[in-house]
UniProtKB/TrEMBL annotation:
Gene Ontology molecular function, alphabetical: transferase activity, transferring phosphorus-containing groups
Organism in which the protein naturally occurs: Leishmania orientalis
Entry keywords, A to Z: Membrane, Transferase, Transmembrane, Transmembrane helix
Name of the protein in its database record: Stealth protein CR3 conserved region 3 domain-containing protein
Segments traversing the membrane: 39-69
InterPro entries: Stealth
Cellular component aspect of the GO annotation: Golgi apparatus
Length: 1000
């Protein structure tokens, strides 16, 4: 007993066990028996404790669930994300957003979850399983959201986000911004379809063999540094004109100073001097040019098959398909269908219109979305920063490279989660560290550089940080515009009230929203109107030629990236090569907040560099960490927050200085107490709705293999290509890509055959190809469209401009506007407004932005004539005089809906300058504008020209740009716009004429 007693008192637990054992032994008549019973009891306790520990551990990890399931029960099935699936999930624990739901809503969400589970299990049985490594709940991760309590105080309610189907809590220690409230709701799949089935799909597309693109690319490669140097020197010197008066009458025979300098610095430019228009076109667009195309720009029919994959696997899509390119339209698109099917067509076409078949693809010139003066670029990273500027873009859009493919059926829930948030798909690995990229074109260096940008802005700097230079600039701008916005704000109130009421009614979190009755509601509406108008001014200022000031000014405020390697506390993952689902407002927010970063890159990075910002990485980091920042109210709220802090600090300091200090209250504590009191009086309140129209909705991230994306790089190795193609067939991912790394015809043919086998069904808009030539598909119905289209394309085009410098760009823009199908004449009228010439206006206003890229001036053929128009003359009068009695016109058939029976006499492009002559620097940037996209019949409006009411011209005008979603490219000079359309157009210009150069 002595030895036993020495061990027995090792713990209180052991003492209790022995005490119980002795009592049992006494009852049994033997203390020895009691000791044995105590040992048995202790063993039983340990076993029970161990079982309890594992029972609690298993639900958290999910690792041993298959081992410890009850006897006779099967383990829960595995879904395609790799996490355990159950139809009895506790939503209140799984996601915080379910906590305050009504019982009816919880039951609805539960039933929806059960259906999703059943669908995923059925799908898993049809294809190989792809289990993903899970992010364990509780691991530090940026995927988290927060919401302040109704009072707007400092207490935080963490809201889980989802990664690979596993909830993650918000990073500890992240303090909320004062009185910033976020609200969101959940959606059923049916509601998501209703909201987002018409989202825009935006492609980036490059055909490296197209002449204008090749011309710009070669000049940038051979002369880019010299061209940018001349433009920068001209801007900083403050020169008002690039050409001296002696050169203005030289008719191109003598070179102006800027171009004369390039002859000594740029061999490519020097080699094409003295050529004729036809020779120039052949040099940059002939067969030998096709052989010089690099891997990145080689066209192997990827875009055609990508669009097929979209129509095949996303039949629910009803939105636009927009292709942003350097100015070329896919040659395989049937011109007649693309121009007419949106408005004209028989019963078959009408049925296609209602079934979701795409009846139009719109090619937009990339220069139309790029900032003024920054357009000579082949840097796709820079261009991606501005794709959100596509006119009337939807709140969420899908961005695709032309080599991305949809491999199987995609539902709306593959793009959006239950909050309406975008689904982010990444590779399995995370970015190891961030550092400043070098001057190379290395992808690894670029990823590290972007990661450092994310670390600095999401971790090193506080969320309310605004650089001093930016703060001063915004304050000065908004102060100047305060009175002007007052009446605009009042007009907004009626529309804002309906929005606020709807959002509050839809919020799932009870007690969060507007309080205090009608007065508080009116006050919040007024504040929202003020914030929205303030942001609109900030956005407008960030989109003008102040980009140039930001690129060169010492007062600009780009993000300062520190030296050394930095590891993120948050986890950012490598992006996949798959369609990117983007909340548009996040890009809009960056264009203002990081305008100076973008401006520097836009000017200095004209080809891909490691110091670019890789936009998919930036989007993934910000959308998972701070979706509310996308709101138009966020930056104005920060400005008022800064002002409240400054006022509270001044008032607290004055109050503490005046009042005698109590011995029991230290000075710093008194100052803090006073500051808190005064700050509470001045701090703004703001409610941000995470609905993709205000802030962005909370996102969900899937990592490979849960992302179900495969990367394919096609090289000259035919056997290796076949292996990866077979792997795609076997694994059947949701998306895959075809990255071009080949330069042989054999590899190109192999890729075409593979894509044809995957996506054999042509889309409605395709034209058949026979013997290397594109021709429209046969059939009586399509034949009627082709005949109507051919008749329309033979009609004249009348252009109207306010300045003579706008004539040449307008004529060349018609090649893209009509996709090369126009066969009629062109008659341009120059408005005689009695003001100064555009060159004189640039000199008077000391315009400093100039294009130094050499561009041939127009030498017209007999199909083009130039005349004059009186100031204020109506479009009908200009068109009537220009067309005269030429032709009988084309009658639109009964299948053309509201246009049926109209006799079309011609087309009119109204490119007149609003308020000409220009008298301000802001107006000068928009003095000239020409169409920058392919046009279709629905882009025009009919204007009667007589003699009968049905005799009309079809007009596309700058004034209708927003209503019709037509893109125009603007500029202050002819040379500005000839950057966009640099080469002669064979249909309208004299190919035998010697090249003359436009004068900057």
């Amino acid at each position: 007993m002595k030895r036993w007693s020495r061990k027995a008192y090792a713990s209180m637990h052991t003492r209790c066990v022995i005490h119980v054992g002795r009592r049992i032994g006494a009852a049994c008549g033997s203390e020895k028996v009691g000791g044995g019973r105590a040992v048995l009891l202790a063993a039983i306790c340990l076993v029970v404790f161990g079982l309890f520990f594992f029972v609690e551990l298993v639900p958290m990890t999910g690792v041993l669930s298959a081992v410890l399931v009850p006897f006779g029960a099967a383990p829960s099935p595995r879904n395609r994300w790799g996490s355990d699936t159950t139809t009895t999930i506790n939503f209140a624990v799984r996601s915080f957003a379910f906590r305050d739901m009504s019982e009816t809503d919880k039951q609805r969400e539960h039933e929806l979850h059960v259906r999703r589970v059943e669908e995923r299990l059925r799908e898993a049985q049809r294809r190989p399983r792809a289990d993903a490594a899970l992010v364990v709940k509780g691991e530090t991760d940026p995927n988290a959201f927060r919401m302040t309590v109704p009072s707007g105080g400092a207490a935080v309610q963490p809201v889980d986000a989802v990664v690979d189907g596993v909830a993650l809590v918000r990073r500890p220690g992240t303090a909320p911004l004062p009185r910033l409230r976020t609200m969101w709701r959940t959606f059923t799949p049916a509601e998501l379809y209703e909201l987002y089935d018409a989202l825009d799909i935006i492609y980036s597309f490059v055909n490296g063999s197209e002449a204008n693109h090749h011309y710009r690319k070669q000049l940038r490669a051979g002369c880019g540094a010299h061209i940018l140097g001349l433009e920068k020197r001209h801007f900083l010197s403050g020169n008002a004109s690039a050409a001296s008066p002696s050169h203005l009458k030289a008719e191109g025979k003598d070179l102006p100073p800027l171009l004369a300098e390039l002859t000594t610095q740029c061999p490519i430019y020097r080699s094409i001097l003295g050529k004729r228009n036809g020779e120039l076109l052949k040099h940059f667009g002939g067969a030998e040019n096709t052989l010089r195309v690099d891997d990145r720009d080689r066209e192997t029919d990827e875009l055609r098959h990508s669009l097929r994959s979209v129509e095949q696997h996303m039949p629910w899509h009803r939105g636009r398909v927009v292709m942003v390119s350097p100015g070329h339209h896919p040659t395989w698109v049937d011109g007649a269908k693309n121009f007419l099917a949106g408005m004209c067509g028989d019963a078959r076409v009408q049925a296609l219109r209602t079934s979701g078949t795409h009846l139009r693809v719109t090619t937009v010139h990339q220069d139309a979305v790029m900032p003024y003066g920054m357009r000579l670029t082949v840097d796709s990273h820079v261009i991606e920063q501005h794709l959100w500027r596509v006119r009337n873009v939807t709140p969420v859009h899908v961005y695709m490279n032309d080599d991305y493919f949809v491999n199987r059926g995609v539902a709306i829930t593959d793009l959006f989660n239950e909050y309406g948030g975008t689904i982010v798909r990444t590779e399995g690995g995370n970015v190891a560290a961030g550092w400043k990229g070098d001057s190379s074109v290395s992808w690894v260096q670029g990823v590290a550089n972007t990661e450092l940008f994310n670390i600095v802005n999401l971790e090193h700097l506080p969320e309310d940080f605004i650089p001093k230079e930016l703060l001063a600039r915004w304050r000065g701008m908004l102060t100047r515009g305060a009175d002007k916005n007052l009446s605009d704000g009042r007009r907004l109130f009626s529309s804002l009230k309906a929005k606020v009421d709807r959002a509050v009614a839809a919020a799932r979190l009870r007690g969060i929203g507007l309080g205090g009755g009608a007065a508080a509601a009116d006050e919040e509406m007024e504040q929202e109107a003020r914030y929205i108008l303030a942001f609109s001014e900030m956005l407008e200022a960030a989109s003008t030629s102040s980009y140039w000031d930001a690129a060169f000014s010492a007062a600009s405020a780009p993000t300062v990236l520190p030296a050394g390697r930095h590891k993120s506390l948050l986890k950012h993952y490598l992006t996949t090569h798959a369609p990117f689902v983007y909340c548009t407002n996040m890009f809009r927010h960056w264009s203002v907040r990081f305008r100076d970063d973008f401006a520097y890159a836009d000017f200095h990075h004209r080809h891909r560099l490691a110091r670019d910002l890789f936009m998919p990485f930036v989007y993934n980091a910000f959308i998972m960490a701070r979706p509310w920042e996308a709101s138009a109210k966020f930056l104005p709220y920060l400005l008022e927050l800064k002002e409240a802090m400054e006022v509270a600090a001044a008032e607290a300091s004055a109050a503490v200085t005046r009042s005698p200090q109590a011995e029991t209250l230290p000075f710093i504590d008194a100052l803090r107490e006073r500051y808190t009191h005064h700050f509470a009086r001045h701090a703004p309140n703001v409610s941000i709705f995470l609905d993709n129209t205000d802030g962005c909705a909370p996102a969900t991230l899937y990592r490979n293999p849960a992302a179900e994306v495969m990367y394919m790089r096609v090289t000259n190795d035919i056997a290796a290509n076949r292996r990866i193609m077979d792997d795609i067939q076997q694994r059947h991912p949701l998306y895959f890509n075809a990255n071009a790394g080949f330069n042989t015809a054999e590899a190109a043919d192999q890729l075409r055959r593979f894509l044809q086998s995957k996506f054999p069904t042509p889309v409605y808009l395709e034209a058949e190809v026979a013997d290397g030539h594109t021709r429209a598909a046969a059939g009586a119905e399509d034949g009627a469209l082709r005949r109507l289209f051919g008749d329309l394309m033979a009609l004249p085009v009348v252009g109207v401009v306010s300045y003579e410098e706008g004539v040449c760009p307008l004529v060349r823009s018609l090649a893209l506007a009509f996709a090369g199908h126009h066969l009629g004449g062109v008659r341009v009228s120059v408005e005689q407004h009695g003001g100064a010439t555009l060159r004189e206006a640039r000199a008077a206003l000391r315009h400093r932005v100039v294009s130094a890229m050499p561009a041939p001036a127009c030498r017209y053929s007999e199909r083009v004539s130039v005349g004059s128009a009186a100031r204020g003359e109506g479009i009908a009068d200009v068109a009537r005089r220009a067309i005269g009695g030429a032709g009988a016109g084309v009658v639109l058939p009964s299948t053309c809906g509201g246009g049926a029976g109209l006799r079309v006499r011609g087309f009119v492009v109204d490119a007149r300058t609003p308020g000409a002559p220009v008298r301000s620097a802001a107006a000068l940037r928009d003095a000239l504008a020409v169409p920058a996209q392919t046009l279709s019949l629905e882009d025009f409006r009919a204007v009667a020209v007589g003699p009968s009411e049905g005799d009309v011209v079809l007009v596309v005008s700058r004034a209708d740009a927003d209503a019709k979603a037509v893109h125009w490219v603007n500029g202050a000079s002819e040379s500005d716009l000839l950057v966009t359309y640099p080469l002669p157009v064979e249909a309208y210009e004299d190919m035998s004429a010697e090249v003359r150069w436009s004068v900057p």
